[in-house]
Amino acid sequence: MENANSYSRRDFVRLAGMAGAAALIAPNFAFEEAKKRKFKIGATFILWGYNSDNLEPALKDMAALGYHSFETFGNVIDDWETKRGGFGQVVQKYGVPIVSAFCQTDVLDPSKKKAELDKLIRWSKLLKANGGKVIEYCAGGRRAKDFNYKDHAKYMIESMNDFAKAVTDEGLVCALHPHTGTPVETEEEIYYVMNNLDTRYMKFGPDVGQIQKGGGDPVKVCKDFMSLIEHVHLKDYAGGETGYLGYSPLGKGQVKIAEILKMLEKRRKKMAGMIMFELDYQQNGKPPYTNFEAAKVSRDFLAKLDYKFTPITA
After folding, report:
1. Residues 6+ apart with CB under 8 A from 40
2. Long-range contacts of 7-16 (CB under 8 A, 24+ apart)
3. HEC secondary structure over the chain
4. Which residue, 77, 103, 127, is CA-closest to 177?
5. Using an 8 Å Cβ cutoff, are 211 and 186 in contact?
6. Spatial separation of the C-alpha atoms in residues 148 and 36, rounded to whole Å
7. How many CA within 13 A on the CB side of residue 14?
8. 22: which strand partners?
9. Average model confidence (pLDDT) for the chain?
10. Which of 29, 69, 119, 210 is surrounded by the fewest CB atoms within 10 Å?
11. pLDDT digits over 136-150, tens only?
């Protein structure tokens, strides 16, 4: 098809002249260039569950649906490396490369810092050894009902700077992931920490569904911190009882997915990580889809936006 198109364009130039041909070719050229700008999109494995047993079922479905990469938890990589014969062998089996690991450390309790730092460095080394590039970093610690980030601000910023620098020193990118139920949840908290962290080390890895659920505006947040975005969890949020903690397959919720993707396209070539489809697993939930179906609904929504997926067959 490409050769046929090229031939017809040369014919037209020869017969109609350069000026007339340019008017016809320019829109086609612009369309081709637009297609080149489209992200390759991966998936996080949380839809399939939280522990090491869920890794193979997740990779099997991701490969069949054509997702380009995946993300799992740092502790899952650790478990496969130390107890299950190696993480790399299971990744190679399904052919979906890892790009990132979700890692959480406590930012509220100084007595835990050394252990948390050691853990994060260990997970960073394992991720890098298996070809990953980004630590999707989540600030952890128990968030009480009366939690006020201002009461913890000094240690939060100091500890996150140290954690991010440690990741950077391992040759990876550390990207902050705001998350409901953690010390960085609301829009106010996001703006505070991102405006006070040392962004030489801590970049931004927004989860647009989490921001929506936390009462923020994911379009505004992404726009304001676009220059720091290195990785993104692309998640939709519908609210209520969905079987997925209020989240939904892409295109079924309130998040302006297409608008966010359009903005992110301009950042694509500068990002260390990727756009990752995500939908949260809910223990004892009653989801309307199987895991495969939910991932397929989301993939098909993205395909309608001209994102391409190539299934991997065994």
Report:
1. 68, 69, 274, 308
2. none
3. CHHHHHHHHHHHHHHHCHHHHHHHHHHHHHHHHHHHCCCCEEEEHHHHCCCHHHHHHHHHHHHHHCCCCEEEEHHHHHHHHHHCCCHHHHHHHHCCCEEEEEEEEECCCHHHHHHHHHHHHHHHHHHHHCCCCEEEEEEECCCCCCCCHHHCHHHHHHHHHHHHHHHHHCCCEEEECCCCCCCCCCHHHHHHHHHHCCCCCEEECCEHHHHHHCCCCHHHHHHHCHHHECCEEECEECCCCCCCCCEECCCCCCCCHHHHHHHHHCCHHHCCCCEEECCCCCCCCCCCCCHHHHHHHHHHHHHHCCCCCCCCCC
4. 103
5. no
6. 45
7. 6
8. none
9. 89
10. 29
11. 999 999 888 889 999
Residue 297 has pLDDT above 50, yes or no: yes
Sheet containing 41-44: which strands, arranged edge to edge? 202-204, 173-176, 134-140, 98-106, 70-73, 41-44, 275-277, 232-234
- β-partners of residue 42 are 276
- Residue 45 CB burial class (10 angstroms; 0-12, 13-18, ≥19): buried
Q: Residue written as tokens 């997702």?
A: 67
Angle at 222 between CA 72 and CA 258, to 5 degrees: 80
Give, in degrees to the nearest 5, the angle at Cα 137 between 134 and 143.
170
Q: Cα–Cα distance between 136 and 72 in angstroms, integer?
A: 10
The band of 39, judged by pLDDT with boundaries at 50, 70 and 90, is confident
The Cβ of residue 112 has, within 10 Å, a number of other Cβ atoms equal to 16
Burial class, 228, CB count within 10 angstroms (exposed 0-12 / middle 13-18 / buried 19+)? middle
- Per the DSSP assignment, residues forming a β-bridge with 136 are 102, 175
What predicted TM-score, i.e. pTM, was given to this entire model? 0.87
Which domains are present in the chain?
Answer: 1-36 (no CATH), 40-304 (3.20.20.150)
